[in-house]
């Protein structure tokens, strides 16, 4: 009998290798030839599944997003309510596999501004990314539903921006950001954001307050 090929699995295998190649060599040096060689396939085999290098990159992005979603939404061991810090730490480059994912994301971000298609893809990915983190915050913070819509949105943007910044810093200088330090900084940020959100009234940060401050 001829061997049955799982084409979806093979596409994912190529996407995983593309993540490693981009993380190691950078976006420009991650050629189809190099990706194929790292995967143990011919360039013809890779071309059978992907028309262009950009298609491989987009498949890798989607694969990483699925992996992050799986880690952030799986039930905690032993049941019960999830610990928000442990939950969000899953998105940080705290081990080799997550570092590769984050290095890939960082390299991709550097290409977005100059490519209209990648810009559209990034916008869609960002929307899904924000929705995923909003679900995490709602699961991990019992007081989430008691905050106003505006407060929830500010908190969400603050947490996601912090995680993205911490990710980029770790990818750029991994020796400065061991896993324990990343998690401790995330803990501090969550504590500060929660303290701000729990205040009886949040200060108005809009134009009217800025105008008053200048007087």
Descriptive report:
By secondary structure, the chain is mostly helical. It has one domain (about 5-200): Tetracycline Repressor, domain 2, CATH 1.10.357.10. About 70% of the residues lie in helices and about 0% in strands. It has 10 helices and no strands. It has helices at about 5-25, 30-40, 45-50, 55-75, 85-90, 95-110, 115-140, 150-170, 180-195, 205-215. Helix 1 crosses helix 2, helix 1 crosses helix 6 (about 95-110) and helix 6 (about 95-110) crosses helix 8. The longest helix has 25 residues, at about 115-140. It is elongated.
Quick summary of this structure?
72% of the residues lie in helices and 0% in strands. It has helices at 7-25, 32-39, 43-49, 53-73, 84-89, 96-112, 116-140, 149-172, 179-197, 207-214.
Could you name the CATH class?
Answer: Mainly Alpha
| Assembly annotation | single chain
The mean pLDDT is 87
Unreliable stretches (pLDDT < 50, length at least 5) are 209-215
Provide the helix percentage: over 70%
Largest sheet: none
Number of domains: 1
Strand tally is: 0
What does the overall shape look like? elongated
Radius of gyration: 20 Å
**What is the annotated CATH architecture?**
Orthogonal Bundle
Instruction: Tell me the CATH topology.
Output: Tetracycline Repressor, domain 2
In CATH, what is the homologous superfamily? Tetracycline Repressor, domain 2
Structural class: mainly alpha
Distance linking N and C termini = 83 Å
């Amino acid at each position: 009998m001829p061997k049955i090929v799982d084409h979806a699995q093979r596409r994912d295998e190529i996407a995983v290798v593309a993540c490693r190649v981009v993380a190691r060599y950078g976006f420009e040096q991650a050629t189809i030839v190099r990706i194929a060689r790292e995967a143990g396939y011919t360039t013809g085999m890779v071309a059978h599944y992907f028309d262009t290098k950009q298609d491989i990159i987009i498949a890798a992005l989607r694969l990483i997003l699925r992996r992050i979603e799986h880690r952030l939404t799986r039930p905690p061991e032993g049941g019960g309510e999830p610990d928000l810090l442990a939950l969000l730490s899953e998105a940080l480059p705290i081990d080799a596999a997550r570092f590769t994912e984050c290095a890939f994301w960082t390299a991709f971000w550097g290409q977005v501004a100059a490519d209209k298609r990648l810009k559209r893809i990034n916008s869609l990915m960002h929307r899904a990314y924000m929705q995923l983190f909003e679900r995490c915050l709602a699961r991990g913070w019992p007081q989430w539903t008691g905050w106003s819509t505006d407060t929830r949105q500010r908190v969400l943007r603050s947490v996601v921006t912090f995680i993205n910044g911490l990710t980029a810093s770790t990818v750029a200088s991994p020796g400065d950001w061991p896993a324990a330090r990343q998690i401790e900084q995330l803990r501090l940020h969550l504590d500060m954001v929660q303290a701000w959100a729990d205040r009886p009234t949040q200060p108005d940060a809009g134009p009217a307050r800025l105008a008053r401050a200048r007087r």
